[in-house]
Structures are given as C-alpha cells and as structure tokens.
Amino acid sequence: ADEPLILGIETSCDETGIGIVRGHTLLANTIASSMDEHARFGGVVPEVASRAHLEAMTPTVEAALAAAGLRFADIDAVAVTAGPGLAGALLVGVAAAKAYALGLGVPLYGVNHLAAHVAVDELEHGPLPKPCIALLVSGGHSSLLLVPDVTGDVISLGSTVDDAAGEAFDKVARVLGLPFPGGPHIDRAARDGSGTAIAFPRGKLDDGTLDFSFSGLKTAVARWVEAREAAGQGVHVPDVAASFQEAVVDVLTRKALQACRKYGVGDLLIGGGVAANSRLRALAQERCDAAGVRLRVPRPGLCTDNGAMVAALGSDLVAAGVEPSSLQIPADSSLPV
Ligand code: KG4
Ligand code: ZN
C-alpha cells in the first residue's frame, strides 16, 4: 500500500484512456472512445479525435478516481503517452498531464505508447521476464521488439513496411461490407469459415527479415472478391475472413518465433488491439508450445489502447528510479521506441 499511486493518460488515437495503478495493481481503467464519431468516415479523423479528447478528459479522470474511490490528492505521479500517435490527439493528453502534475505538485513521466502496450501485461501476469520479445499489432503499428527492460531502451527488430496488421483487418472488412473497425467483425465471421478455403499470399514470409507487409494481402483479397462478383459468383464472407485472417496470423506468429530463436529469448508477449484476435491467440499458443517459448497475452480489454498501460509503465519508471520528464516535454507523433 506504500507504493506510489500513478495516474496514466492515453490520447494517442481515438481513446481517451485514464488508468490508475499502485505497483502492478490495477485500480481503475476508464475509457471514453470517439470511435462512433469516426465510424461513418471509415477511419479515425484526427481533428474530431482531438476535440473529443478535450471534452472527455476531465469527466474521464473524475470517473477513474471515483471508480477507484480516490481523490486527486492521493495521486503521487502522472504518466502520459508522449508518442507515437496523432499529433493533435497527443497534445491534449500531454497538456492535461502537465496541468495535473503541476497542479498536484507531483512528477510527470512522458512514456512511449509501444512500451506501454508491453508494460500493461504486468497488471495481469506480474513482472515481465527480462528480456522478452514483444509482438505489437494494432491499427497504427505492427512491430517486433526486443525488450531487455521495459523501463530502458527497447530495440525494434522489425516492423511493417506498409499497412499495420489492424489496418489490413479494417480495410478487408470494408471490402467484405463489415463495419469499422473491422478486426472484431472479421474475427467473428471467421469462426464460421475455413482458414484454408482460399490461399492468400503471405507477405515477406521467408525473406530473412523480421519486417511485415500486409498491403499485398489486402489487395489480393480485394481482387479475389472483385473477380468473384464480376463472374456473378457469390462470396462466402466467413471463408474469405478466415482465410485472410489465417494469412495474417500465420506470418505474425512465424516471425515472432523466428525473433525468439534468433535472439535466444524464451518469452514472447503479444499486445496491441489485434492481440484480441482469437485465432492469433490460439495459433501463437500452439506454436509457442511447440517451440518451448512461454507466451503472455493480456486480456483483450488491456490489449486495445487504454490508460492503465500508461500508468503501468509509469509505475515501473518510478520503481526503477528513472528521472521524471520536464514540464516542457513535447508531444512527439513519430516518437521511436
Ligand atoms: O491498439 P488499438 O486499440 O489502437 C491502435 O493503437 O491502433 O488497435 C485497434 C486495431 C483496429 O485495427 C482493430 O480492427 C483491431 O485492432 N482489432 C482486431 C480485433 N480487435 C481489435 N483485429 C483483429 N481481431 C480482433 N479481434
Ligand atoms: Zn496502441
């Protein structure tokens, strides 16, 4: 109970996420999403997201404090996503975090969004193994990271050269007439289909790198659907969804295990919104078991963007004695890991 109480603020995309943690204990994880406002545009509109963050910030912080039965005065440090993400959206969170830190007289920690996606798993499964390999897959990023220590330098081993995995899910969903964001809809549709019905391409599968490519796959699915429709043949959505999904998770899991082997690391963590995918979780478990690698995947609610992940990393930084950030810290939309 003597560990410091950390308030975490996440505004890198469309979620205003406020988390409160003490050590690795999650006390509140409150989210206001502007996704409904973006859905009709088929993607997140930065200006709309920024404005929504501004309106949601105070009520969401107050809701998180109320959920945890705490007051402002209980907070010992504020952590905020400093990047990467949408510039205007990040600015709202960073400005709010500075105001709270200054007003409360507590230290401020600007954190990396990708590292926070890794650290969040500690709230569910305890301290991270050091080192671990992390596969982060979301609408904005698809990366393989070597994480010697989440409070220090995180090394990028590979990333997508075009679309992020979640972006591919969202674009293919649109081709199939499923709502945005499409990932969960494809996941659901795929349960009634066969992953081997259609042989879609696996980009960069055996190219010797740990990079990904999903835009060729997305195009292949669109062409396949167009050709079927032009020929007057029906499209069995569950089979297309399952076969597309299989192509994505086949490459993701193979490359993640290649990274484990190459760096001699026995622990793999999967995070980001796409880690909520049921087939990814199942295939990763199967392949990790076969390779003798321990797998950690946070529950779906912690995989998608949230404030608890930021608070979790902030808590680790405080515990590690890392210097707080200056109140001049910028929001950096292209912050590297
Ligand atoms: O991490 P996240 O909430 O936000 C970003 O930082 O992008 O990830 C959102 C992405 C979206 O592309 C969404 O379609 C995808 O994660 N996603 C899924 C599933 N749930 C969310 N993709 C595949 N299967 C799912 N079950
Ligand atoms: Zn994210």
UniProtKB/TrEMBL annotation:
Assigned EC number: 2.3.1.234
Subcellular location: Cytoplasm
Needed cofactors: Fe(2+)
Cofactor annotation remark: Binds 1 Fe(2+) ion per subunit.
Stretch forming the signal peptide: none
Keyword Iron attributed: yes
Chain residues that bind Fe cation: 113, 117, 305
Catalytic activity reported: L-threonylcarbamoyladenylate + adenosine(37) in tRNA = N(6)-L-threonylcarbamoyladenosine(37) in tRNA + AMP + H(+)
InterPro entries recorded: ATPase_NBD, Gcp-like_dom, KAE1/TsaD, Peptidase_M22_CS, TsaD
Matching Gene3D superfamilies: 3.30.420.40
Residues at which substrate binds: 136-140, 170, 183, 187, 277
NCBIfam families found in the cross-reference section: gcp_kae1 (TIGR00329), T6A_TsaD_YgjD (TIGR03723)
Biological function: Required for the formation of a threonylcarbamoyl group on adenosine at position 37 (t(6)A37) in tRNAs that read codons beginning with adenine. Is involved in the transfer of the threonylcarbamoyl moiety of threonylcarbamoyl-AMP (TC-AMP) to the N6 group of A37, together with TsaE and TsaB. TsaD likely plays a direct catalytic role in this reaction.
PANTHER family found in the cross-reference section: TRNA N6-ADENOSINE THREONYLCARBAMOYLTRANSFERASE (PTHR11735), TRNA N6-ADENOSINE THREONYLCARBAMOYLTRANSFERASE, MITOCHONDRIAL (PTHR11735:SF6)
Family of this protein: Belongs to the KAE1 / TsaD family.
Classification via HAMAP family: TsaD
Record-given protein name: tRNA N6-adenosine threonylcarbamoyltransferase
Organism field: Actinomadura luzonensis
High-level lineage: Bacteria, Bacillati, Actinomycetota, Actinomycetes, Streptosporangiales
The gene coding this protein: tsaD
